[in-house]
Amino acid sequence: MSSGAEESTAHLINFTQSNYSNVSDGCAGESADFQYLLLPIVYSVVFVLAVAGNLTALVHFLRTRSATHPSHIFLVNLCVIDLLFALTLPFNVVYHARQNDWPFGEAMCKINGSLFFGNLYGSSLFLMLISLDRYLAVAHPLHALRMRNPKYRILLSCLVWVVLASVILYLTLRGPLTRPFPATGHIACMENFSSKSWRGRISAVSLLAAALGFFLPLLIIATCYPLIACKLLAHVQVMERGGSGGTTSSALTAHHVTGRVKKKALRMVLLVLGVFLFCFAPYHLNQLVHTLHRMAVLSGCSLIRFTYPARRVTMALCSLNSCLDPVVYCLASENFHWDRRNWCCGELRLLPWLKQRHQNRNHPITNTNLQQSA
């Protein structure tokens, strides 16, 4: 074979090995052209809903001065991290609409990637803390009262932010996050990493983040749900025995109120578990398989040809988390009710006032005073 032919063959092999983002050496032909339409549409819708929902919730917490309330501290942090992520979505819309071409520079790519990473794993950790908080309130109310001081929740929140900041700094300061696609010359952001990067910081961060930011929170939340369900079932059995045993009406009322609290906590933890399974699980499982392939633990080009387009779909699912979190605020907050000014039903705010007015009308002393004043 001539030297010119050898050089041409070598060039073709090198081009094939680095042809596409997130592919293993020697694998080529991966494509996901649907992402250029899917992700801009999804991100645009999520941007509008997430900004509206989370900004309204944050304004509510600040207006009612309940942001430092013990049961709201984790919610406020979750709201802030969702808002920061939502503000990056217009940049991602432009990136994918330009067929994965990042025009905003390396610094902005690092900021964008950091906020995506922070939302992905920060949301998981704060949802885990919210579920744990509700479990303690239901299963160990005395311990929950002792830990009612906001400083414990503030310390835990600061710990989450410190962990996120440490991992993000390690990811961003060890090397660039932009790299040109050899086939098109487009600038990739947070993808198309070299094999050297995968053997170093990328795989390490990916596995550590998956373990601490997804699998651990999922395990804890999945454990809290059946434990709260067991407490609720035990409460129902106590109510049945109490009703047949002639328990006083005041005791039954107290049990009824406790039962409502437990049911609300159960619904909230079930919602959080649903968010995890729907929004986060597909992305992390796909990313784990892809990382193991890039580390040569798994082999086969067909695996890469599946995980690359699947990552685009799972990224769209991840972004929906910031739209669903405001529903968690409704179930987890003690006094959070959406009205028309808060994008939902105004009748909810009237219910406590109408109930109080009805009680005043039926109270004899109040009625006498009203008649005298009239």
UniProtKB/TrEMBL annotation:
Q: Where does the G-protein coupled receptors family 1 profile domain start and stop, copy by copy?
A: 53-329
MF GO annotations: G protein-coupled receptor activity; oxysterol binding
Checking PROSITE patterns in the record gives: G_PROTEIN_RECEP_F1_1, G_PROTEIN_RECEP_F1_2
Give the way it sits in the membrane. Answer: Multi-pass membrane protein
Single GO cellular component annotation?
membrane
Q: Which domain of life is it from?
A: Eukaryota
Q: Which InterPro entries match?
A: GP183-like, GPCR_Rhodpsn, GPCR_Rhodpsn_7TM
Q: List locations, semicolon-separated.
A: Membrane
Which keywords does this chain's UniProt record carry? Answer: Adaptive immunity, Disulfide bond, G-protein coupled receptor, Immunity, Membrane, Receptor, Transducer, Transmembrane, Transmembrane helix
Q: Which residues cross the membrane?
A: 41-62, 74-95, 115-132, 152-173, 202-228, 265-285
An example Pfam family from this entry, by short name, is 7tm_1
Q: Name one GO biological process term.
A: adaptive immune response
Known CDD domains for this protein?
7tmA_purinoceptor-like (cd14982)
What family is it from?
Belongs to the G-protein coupled receptor 1 family.
> What is the recorded name of this protein?
G-protein coupled receptors family 1 profile domain-containing protein
**Naturally occurring in which organism (per UniProt):** Synaphobranchus kaupii
